[in-house]
Write a structure and sequence with these properties.
The complex is a heterodimer of chains A (128) and B (582).
Chain A: H1 9-26, H2 83-92, H3 116-119
Chain B: H1 8-21, H2 24-32, H3 42-48, E1 66-68, H4 70-84, H5 90-103, H6 108-111, H7 115-118, H8 130-136, H9 142-146, E2 148-150, H10 152-165, H11 187-198, H12 204-212, E3 220-228, E4 232-243, E5 246-258, E6 263-274, E7 278-285, E8 304-310, E9 316-322, E10 330-338, E11 343-348, E12 351-353, E13 358-366, E14 377-378, E15 383-391, E16 395-402, E17 409-415, E18 418-427, E19 432-436, E20 439-443, E21 454-455, E22 457-462, E23 475-479, E24 483-488, H13 497-500, E25 502-504, E26 509-512, E27 529-537, E28 547-556
Parallel strand pairs in B: 12-18, 20-28
Antiparallel strand pairs in B: 1-2, 3-4, 3-10, 4-5, 5-6, 6-7, 7-8, 8-9, 9-10, 11-13, 13-16, 14-17, 15-16, 17-18, 19-22, 21-26, 22-23, 24-27, 25-26, 27-28
The chains are: A mainly alpha (128), B alpha+beta (582).
């Protein structure tokens, strides 16, 4: 990257932003205490310099890592709360070994549960 | 858990359609070329022939071209009942599982690498063929895969079955890392190529085993030696009796005790042996058992499943007894046949510090000499027998003194020529500790879904002759009495997992937090997280330095569907058959 030179204004903006990041990293800068909101959304793992894009709390996007862990092997990037994603997994049959699929094994799994995030107590453990 | 939908959805559906349209006769003809296993059992033919075509050589489509564990066959049967409308009586189901496990089963050497799966051990999946690993373990363990043998065409059909039941999988994990361009092979194809090669239907191991396998005669007395994490060693005996008229069935009575706790357990059970070596049993604690201590509230008690492997010599059974509802709670067990000769099953305590003064040691076994004197017993170099305090056929209580300059290492125990290697370990100091499991996993639960516990142990090591820890000269001493606590494993900004994930008690048992969104956490996160499990060891009498070690713990999401075919917890209308595995 260092051998490439930006040729337009946008590239220059990115470069100066990256320079800032690099400097602040070298200085060991951390988010100042009390700056609420700067990182109120939990991202993936540490090591990411301040100013990185906010990964939304929730699905692990395209990494599609595993049911138990995210791409980094931890839980920080998992869909949380998991109840929020249950219906989607059920309807899409996405995690067929972990969540009952509506296509074959448990078509009525969510019938007593209008919104998983509220009624999650009503879903049953399924023994196919 | 976001779902990238790819264009190959249509391709996938076309593939499923193509298979569905393949005439049954052509299917059978294709499979025949690989030499299937003819089905001669009336129960299988009666129940399955409505869908599975039988040819004039007795081959049934699909069934004749695969071999599996009893659990595997039972899972298939469950699926036929649940999804294909099969109606079947429990006795008939039991007979089908029995027949198919025996005649379309696995040879002992074929099952051995996958034993951990049927024994329900949590374990990190490691497998040399990376693409196959990634493809299969997207949803289930590799254990499911490697405990099956299929003809080449049958492996392809298995994939088609997956696609038929779960039409989106091609666009999900099975698609991950698929390349583009003319030479890019779909990972599923690559995995299938490997499976066809590595797990064929016909193997030398199966040919040899199926020719010689007989129902084993197991009745008699066996010594039992085991280990339950967090509760320590167990020693005892198991009496096996044959069930008249049913050679593959047995009844059992086990009597064992936990010397560390001073409690004893009596269990009675029933078992069945499949394929000539696969023990599947179930036992109940009787009222003769002593009450377990309060610290053992969460432990392998009550009803236990027994999954054991009979070594081909038929003198040793080993495996795991676990609760079923909580596979993670269980005992490691090893049984040795006791005829009339003495058998040494184990020694307690197993770890003896050199120069530590006189101490009591018990030797467990069967047919031990009741008039044993010091000359009958040998616990290895440096372990001096002071006196035999009491001698019974199943245990000797002796007093020993370990000499100051004894060499650190394992010792063989010997009673009148009956020996047990690695029966005890002599050590002068503990150089370092390791927490086991190095990486553990628990699942939140307790409200809507069951929780999954985890149990930790701190294993002491001696640095060995070179004095350098971490080399192959190191000597594993054994589990130490330590203090446990959880510590944060910082992964994110303001990581606060350790406050929420759960608690660890003095025995190393981790109990996870409850399931459901937690309003006290930012974003209503669950009580999931990554933490360190820290063990602190203070040597008795200040001998040597205090030690610290840590293991990783992943506290993660519940699973909402349990495929384990031997599961019998009552779910709402989900239990379809009486469990043919007993």
């Amino acid at each position: 990257m260092r051998k490439l030179k930006g040729i337009n204004r946008k590239a220059a903006q990115i470069e100066s932003h990256l320079d800032e990041l690099r400097h602040s990293e070298q200085a060991g800068a951390q988010t100042p205490e009390g700056e609420e909101g700067a990182h109120d959304v939990v991202g993936l793992r540490t090591g990411s310099p301040p100013g990185d894009p906010h990964i939304p709390l929730g699905c692990t996007l395209i990494f599609s890592p595993g049911w138990e862990t995210d791409a980094s092997g931890g839980t920080a990037g998992l869909c949380q709360p998991v109840e929020r994603d249950l219906f989607d997994c059920h309807l899409g049959c996405f995690w067929p070994a972990q969540v009952p699929d509506q296509l074959n094994h448990a078509p009525d799994w969510t019938s007593r549960c209008a919104a998983a995030e509220k009624d999650w107590r009503n879903v049953d453990l399924i023994f196919p | 858990m976001m779902k990238p939908i790819g264009v190959s959805l249509i391709a996938g559906l076309v593939a499923v359609g193509a298979v569905a349209m393949m005439p049954e006769a052509a299917l059978v003809e294709g499979q025949l070329r690989e030499g299937g296993i003819p089905v001669t059992n009336q129960a299988v033919i009666e129940s399955c022939a409505a869908c599975h075509a039988v040819d004039d050589q007795g081959m049934m489509s699909r069934i004749s071209y695969m071999r599996k564990t009893p659990e595997g066959w039972q899972a298939s049967l469950h699926r036929m009942v649940g999804l294909q409308g099969l109606q079947i009586e429990p006795e008939q189901a039991q007979e089908i599982v029995r027949y198919l496990s025996n005649e379309h089963g696995l040879a002992p050497e074929e099952l051995r690498p996958g034993l951990w799966d049927v024994e329900r051990r949590t374990r990190a999946d490691r497998y040399p063929h990376e693409v196959t690993l990634r493809t299969c373990t997207a949803c289930h363990s590799m254990g499911r895969t490697i405990t099956q043998r299929r003809s080449a065409e049958e492996w392809d059909l298995l994939m088609d079955t997956h696609r038929g039941y779960y039409p989106l999988i091609d666009n999900q994990r099975l698609r991950s890392n698929a390349g583009f361009g003319p030479s890019a092979q779909h990972p599923v194809e690559e995995a299938l190529e490997h499976l066809r090669e590595a797990y064929p239907l016909q193997t030398a191991a199966w040919a040899a085993w199926s020719a010689s396998a007989r129902t084993p005669r197991l009745e008699g007395r066996w010594t039992l030696e085991g280990w339950e994490p967090a509760r320590g060693p167990v020693f005892g005996t198991l009496e096996i009796q044959a069930v008249a008229g049913s050679p593959e069935q047995f009844t059992t009575r086990a009597t064992y005790h936990y010397p560390r706790e001073g409690t004893h357990v009596v269990r009675e059970g029933e078992a069945r042996v499949y394929t000539g070596y696969q023990w599947r049993g179930r036992s109940q604690e009787t009222s003769e058992s002593s009450a377990p201590p309060a610290t053992a509230e969460v432990s392998a008690s009550g009803e236990l499943r027994e999954v054991m492997f009979l070594e081909p010599g038929q003198g040793e059974l080993h495996g795991r007894w676990f609760t079923g509802a909580h596979d993670e709670l269980g005992l490691e067990v090893r049984l040795r046949r006791a005829r009339s000769d003495p058998v040494v099953a184990g020694v307690y305590p197993r770890m003896l510090r050199s120069g530590g003064g006189e101490q009591e040691v018990r030797v467990y076994g069967a047919n031990l000499p009741e008039s044993a004197g010091e000359a009958d017993l040998d616990l290895g170099p440096g372990v001096e027998l002071v006196t035999v305090e009491s001698a019974h056929a199943d245990s000797l209580i002796v007093r020993v003194r370990v000499e100051e300059d004894s060499r650190t290492g394992h010792r063989t125990a010997s009673v009148n020529g009956a020996t047990l290697t690695d029966a005890l370990v002599v050590f002068d100091r503990v150089d370092y500790m390791k927490v086991e499991p190095e990486a553990g996993m628990a699942r939140i639960g307790g409200i809507a879904m069951p929780r999954q516990f985890e149990r930790y142990e701190a294993i002491g090591y001696h640095a060995g002759a070179d004095g350098v820890p971490g080399t192959e000269l190191d000597i594993r001493i054994g589990p130490l009495d330590v203090a446990w606590e959880l510590a944060e494993y910082p992964l994110t900004f303001a990581d606060d997992d350790a406050e929420f994930v759960g608690t660890i008690d003095g025995s190393g048992l981790f109990t996870p937090g409850i399931d459901g969104p937690n309003p006290e956490r930012p974003g209503n996160r669950n009580n999931m997280g990554d933490v360190w499990v820290v063990a602190r060891y203070t040597p008795p009498d200040g001998e040597g330095p205090a030690l610290e070690a840590r293991g990783y713990l992943l506290v993660t999401t519940p699973i909402y569907i349990r495929w384990d075919p031997s599961e019998v917890m009552e779910g709402p209308g989900m239990r379809l058959l009486d469990d043919p595995l007993m």
